[in-house]
Specification:
Blueprint: H1 8-13, E1 51-55, H2 61-67, E2 72-77, H3 80-89, E3 96-100, H4 103-109, E4 114-120, H5 129-139, E5 140-151, E6 159-166, E7 172-179, H6 182-191, E8 195-202, E9 212-218
Parallel strand pairs: 1-2, 1-4, 2-3, 4-5
Antiparallel strand pairs: 5-9, 6-7, 8-9
Helix pairs in contact: 4-5
InterPro entries: Methyltransf_11 (IPR013216), SAM-dependent_MTases_sf (IPR029063)
Keywords: Methyltransferase, Transferase
Protein name: Class I SAM-dependent methyltransferase
Length: 221
């Protein structure tokens, strides 16, 4: 089947590629929600989960960090290239399972429940929340935490928007991204049964331009 300019798998296959052969695993010293090292909250937003699911895990940095601290983590990513690399990097980390698949399809087929479901600049940003949020709620334990982060949304953007990138031979590719402001994310979470919702935009440190939207929500206990 030929690839198209809107091929999400190919788009994410080319995310942070290994350019000169297999690269070594990164040194993961902290659980980060933002793109700025040491800036903002950490894993405390998830409470003290025994089990966790990461949606759109890519390099599985945070998933490996949690698993090393005793959490049983399932890390999901759409890209077979990302999954292969993450499995190679973290094959010796106990309690970490890395799966390949699309978020909504995986959640529909999954029969496990999790104390925490989270996404860091990952699948929540690139999946229709009207479809995703009720599926997340079905897979969370009572009182479970749903938390995610993504880049600050410009004031003039709202809703489903294309994000552009370069594919093979420099051709332009797109994936859909849901651009919501914190208040909209909070309303969507409440509409789908989540409570204790907190949504905010954490400003960037120093003179960096782009802040980070962070959303936390819980299922009723």
């Amino acid at each position: 089947m030929p690839r198209t300019p809107h091929d999400s798998v190919l788009f994410w296959d080319r995310y942070k590629p290994d350019r000169d052969g297999p690269s070594p695993p990164p040194d993961v010293a902290a659980f980060e929600w933002t793109q700025y090292e040491g800036h903002g909250p950490g894993a405390e937003l998830l409470g003290r989960p025994r089990t966790a699911l990461e949606l759109g895990a890519a390099e599985c940095r945070e998933a490996s960090w949690l698993a090393r601290r005793g959490v049983r983590v399932t890390a999901l990513d759409l890209s077979p290239v990302q999954v292969e690399r993450a499995r190679r990097w973290w094959k010796d980390v106990p309690g970490l399972t890395i799966e390949e698949g699309e978020a909504c399809s995986f959640l529909r087929a999954d029969d496990q429940t999790y104390d925490a479901v989270y996404s860091i600049w990952g699948a929540v940003w690139f999946t229709d929340p009207e479809e995703l949020f009720p599926l997340v709620a079905e897979r969370l334990s009572p009182g479970g935490v749903f938390a995610f982060s993504h880049g600050e949304t410009p004031r003039h953007l709202n809703g489903r928007r294309p994000m552009y990138g370069k594919g093979p031979e420099g051709r332009e590719m797109t994936v859909d991204r849901w651009c919501h402001h914190p208040g909209t994310w909070a309303d969507l979470a409440r509409e789908h049964g989540f409570r204790d919702v907190r949504a905010r935009c954490l400003p960037a440190p120093t003179d960096q331009a782009l802040g980070t939207i962070i959303v936390e929500a819980r299922l009723p206990a």
